[in-house]
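quick one, 473 residues, struct below
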Amino acid sequence: MINATPLEKLMPRTRRTLALGLGLALAVLALTILAGWFFVRGLVREQIAHRDAEALYATTLMEQLDAGNGLDEPLESGEQIGFEAAILASRLRGVLGIRFFNAKGEFTDAFPATIQPQPLAPGALRSVREFKPHSRFRTDTPMSDVFIYLPQFATGHVARVPMLEVAVPLHERDNQYLAGVAQFLVEGRSIATEYEALDRHLGGMAIGTFVAAGVVLVMMLWPAFRRVERLNHELAQRSERLQRANQELALAARASAVGAVSAHLMHGLKNPLASLSQFVRSHQNEEQQFLDPEWQDALTAARRMQSLVEQTIEVLADARGEPAYELTPSELVETVRARVESLRLRHDIRLAVAVDAKGRISSRTANLVSLILVNLVENAIQATPAGKTVALTLDRQNDYWNWRVQDQGAGFPVQQRAHLFLPCKSTREGGSGIGLAISKQIADHLGAKLELVDPAEGGCVFVLSVPVAAAAD
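---
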């Protein structure tokens, strides 16, 4: 039969799956928001830089118009196209200087003269040829890339500043002939400040969006997970009940077959034992006494065997169809006390009982345990001198219930210890020699341990250790 997954192992695995799925969903959400953040950030930054480029382009065209500098035809190479208009436009706040290029993108001049010559970037040249301004923002530009010389260079200290490079086409307002290119070098601290503010705002929006979307995602998934968890819980419970029912059916089938054979055997023994007892009693005299002591021993053994058969039949009847129930350890001990009470009174023995355990024991297990305990207590009573005490105690250690039966007799014969739980000829008056062997077989069937312990104060102690799980099954 396939073992069902224990219920307590099923739930954590489901929770880990939820956490993994939730983490994956949040990671996808975070990556999506991050990609959107970079896209919007780049777009807005481009618009900020392009805004200044459009302003410089418009200003340059306006200055050309005001200066009346018309461009009707291409000028000779080397002439400064729109020079005056660009110079006028350079008076705008933040412009550090201008580089001039011809229509081919070749450097021709600079204003002021200390501006460091640099080639025009291919991207800027393509843009101005389409009569569109081009801008490029550099966050950390050394001043040595802008100026040929500054007094601070003598100290070896070269400052680094944010720089906006704006390339604008030089042409007449209504003329589509490119006369040249002016590249404005604009100090970009204000733009860097705008970029930082933009990053803060977009970052706050991204974090807020992630938190809000994450909360909504969790609120949507958690109820669904709880419902799935409840369904899994119910499914696991039903699987356990189904497996238990299958085990009970298989056990019942085996017990029915064994019980039928055992019941037939017990009933077959019951009548011969009764006849044997009647035969032995027929040898009593009128005073109900035996002339030969051996006949008394035979009668005692026959009666004990009858008692054992009756108890076994009761257990088989309970296992073969009577409703199962549960007992407490105290109730089980009281049942054992009641069964040995008549023998205790005949031998004038005190029975001390102590129970230090709580729990529940199934009736089938209790009946088998009681068979073992009754046999052990009866043996202890018969081995103990009159007036002495037999102790029956119960405690719980770890996952075992431990029943201890202790007598105050002479101890177990040394020569019989090697064959303690094997059928033999009893040395005790009225003994059958098979009680311990049967008790050992029943203990093994329960998965329990039955062993002999020698106490320091003499006598002997039998300890029956029954697993708590087996006792409750």
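Confidence is low (pLDDT under 50) at residues 1-5, 7-12, 69-81.
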